[in-house]
Amino acid sequence: MYLGMDIGGSKMEIAALNIDSEVIIRERLPTPGDDYELFLNTIKQLVDIAISKVGEVKLLALSMCGLVNNRDRTVWSANLPYLNDKDLFKDLANLFSFPVYIENDCRCFAISEAIGGAADKFETVFGAILGTGVGGGFVIRKRLLSGKNGIVGEWGHSCIDSSMQQKYKLSLLECGCGKKGCIEQYISGRGISNLYRIFFKKTRNTEEIIFDMQQGCQDANYIFNVFIDILSNELSSLTNIIDPDAIVLGGGLSNITEIYPALRDKLEKKLLSKMLPPVILPPQYLDSSGVRGAVLFAIEKDNIF
After folding, report:
1. In Å, what is the CA distance from 154 to each residue of 39, 77, 207, 288?
2. What are the backbone angles phi and psi of residue 219, rounded to the nearest 5°?
């Protein structure tokens, strides 16, 4: 049995998966607010609960919003600030006798959807998260591409294309990463709200804007079209670079059904005339992608099978 754990801002969920990557049990506890030792203890508590129900396990794999420094294996850019600069690998190794793996949640999503998921039949798959932030992962022939710094697919912190900025007279919004103009400020969940504020000088949340768009509101429909224009532009650039067979959307915005036909149409028009566009797919595993992808990543990396 394999244990996967999804580390979220408000909850931590553990799942036990069998050899076929099927979820057998799930347990969750609140994520500690600002206490690293309590965070480690919560992981231990969840693991103990899972082991008491399924018996022996081969490994624990964590899916989390953050990156691991390939030089010293410390965590950085985490959504839980108290994890930054901590040697989480070492501290977890001291707690457990079995191997522990950590991977970014966006890349866990990508590998989950590329292996037995929505894009299982494709060789090259990009998983594009459109949630609170924007991230992703690239899978080639069922293997997650990592890179020198372990950040392949981190497209959300590229600067918005100047043509889009000029077309819509967009200001370069400050990003939490410290830069200005990162595309996640325009095409994430909060990005849609940002666009509405830029154009109409009013604050509305994304759920309200999407609801109004679906009811035929002209202003909300305009913002949605701007969002699709920017998103398709960024994905066309990405497609020119990595040429994926399929792009699977994840995150909260992937639940908006209107995105798919609008994005397919716009993206095809922005690619080179002879290019075959990637297939744009909704996700299959949704909330299970984190734990499932983390385990698949760990199994592949350790060559357990």
Report:
1. 26, 12, 25, 21
2. -65, -45
DSSP per residue over 235-279, as a string?
Answer: HHHHHHHH--SEEEEESGGGG-TTHHHHHHHHHHHHS-TTPPPPE
Phi, psi of 201 (to 5 degrees): 55, 30
Whether residue 46 contacts residue 27, with contact meaning beta carbons closer than 8 Å, is answered with: yes
Rounded Cα distance between 118 and 208, Å, is 29
**Hey, what domains does the chain have and what are their CATH numbers?**
2-104+286-302 (3.30.420.40), 118-281 (3.30.420.40)
Q: 159-180: per-residue pLDDT in tens?
A: 999 999 999 999 999 998 889 9
Query: What is the DSSP track for 54-98?
Result: H---SEEEEEESSEE-TTT--EES-SSGGGTT--HHHHHHTT-SS
Q: For the segment 294-304, what is each residue's pLDDT rounded down to a tens digit? A: 999 998 876 44
Task: Please check whether residue 137 is in contact with residue 151, taking contact to mean a CB–CB distance below 8 angstroms.
Answer: no
The residue to which tokens 């066309």 are assigned: 236
Comparing CA positions, the residue from 163, 34, 36 lying closest to residue 91 is 36
Contact call for residues 66 and 76 (beta carbons, < 8 A):
yes
CA dihedral 279, 288, 175, 211 (to 10 degrees): 70
Judge whether 129 and 79 are in contact, CB under 8 Å.
no
Q: In sequence order, what DSSP letters do the residues of 198-209 get, joined into one string?
A: HHHS----HHHH
Tell me how far apart the alpha carbons of residues 187 and 228 are, in angstroms, rounded to a whole number: 8
The b/e string for 224-234 (b: 16+ C-beta within 10 A; e otherwise) is: bebbbbbbbbb
pTM of the model: 0.93
Token look-up 């501290």 returns 91
Reported as type and span, the H/E element at residue 181 is: none
Per-residue pLDDT for 51 more than 50?
yes
Torsion from C-alpha of 297, 300, 302, 305, nearest 10 degrees: 130
